[in-house]
Specification:
Length: 284
């Protein structure tokens, strides 16, 4: 990570305190740190840049990148003949009386539809394919690409990876988490394709993955201050002579990936709800 360069580079930190004259820069070997492909001339500059990136991510938490549905799920299922008017009214009444829950869950609760029917309707609602998770265990081959804590937080499973085209298919149980997809694309340098799968099968797959070793994943418990997070990331980057570091996050987690080809280490920091400036939107 820290190595001489044969050309002069300028630190990406706007208020870098270590800016040197051109002749001095030409005569002295340059050392540096890389954060998302941007070069920083010192540990201090790297830590400051990482702190700013983390603060920006925390400030944006609670604003999930969701896409509004065109048709409410209950009306969609009614129009498809999956439920009748009385069943839908009964489910909506139960939802109101309980103060929460999704319409699809209440329709299942009253025995109007099956879990598979709800999943197919959700696929129609979000224009997403339904992945046959019961017939494929390809997720065991690609789930290691994402830290397990993040898979569990978003209730998602990477189900198919195409290395040649850098496509990653990601299955969700009932709600496509676009914040998670955005983070995956940034961290994995790939294009994500969302799909849906039966929620109980997603949960079963997560239980199976929970039993797998998480060798490249570290949950840094108790660290919630952005500057301390940046310092921890810097320590790992220096120890592992990292070629680059990437930082993203969603659903209350900051995710840092320390890249030391051919391997990497994932660092996770959990953000307390009181530290998030924008409240999460209620589930619909």
């Amino acid at each position: 990570m820290i190595k001489p360069e044969i050309f002069v580079r300028s630190c990406e930190l706007p208020d870098c305190p270590n800016r040197r004259g051109l002749w001095r820069a030409l005569l002295e070997p340059q050392r540096g740190y890389s954060l998302e492909g941007r070069w920083y001339c010192s540990p201090e500059c790297f830590e400051n840049a990482a702190t700013l990136a983390i603060r920006k991510l925390i400030a944006g938490m609670g604003r999930p990148l969701t896409k509004p549905h065109r048709v409410p799920l209950g009306l969609l299922m009614l129009s498809r003949g999956l439920v009748d008017d009385e069943q839908l009214k009964k489910a909506l009444r139960a939802q109101k009386e309980s103060g929460g829950g999704r319409v699809g869950e209440w329709l299942r609760h009253i025995g109007a539809v099956s879990e598979e029917q709800v999943t197919r309707a959700l696929g129609l609602q979000s224009s997403a394919a339904v992945f046959p998770l019961e017939r494929s265990k390809r997720y065991l081959e690609c789930a290691h690409m994402v830290p397990f804590h993040l898979l569990e937080a978003a209730e998602m499973i990477p189900v198919h990876h195409l290395p040649a085209s850098r496509h990653l298919y990601v299955a969700f149980g009932d709600r496509i988490n676009h914040s998670a997809l955005f983070a995956l694309e940034k961290m994995l340098m790939c294009r994500t394709e969302p799909c849906l799968a039966v929620k109980s099968l997603i949960q079963r797959a997560l239980e199976e993955l929970r039993r797998q070793p998480q060798e490249m994943e570290t949950l840094a418990a108790g660290i919630a201050d952005p500057q301390k997070m940046a310092g921890t990331i810097l320590d790992h980057a220096e120890t592992q002579a990292a070629a680059d570091v990437r930082i993203s996050g969603f659903d209350g987690y900051i995710w840092a990936r320390v890249l030391s080809p051919p391997s990497h280490t994932d660092l996770l920091f959990q953000i307390p709800r009181t530290s998030r400036t924008v409240p999460s939107e209620p589930a619909k």
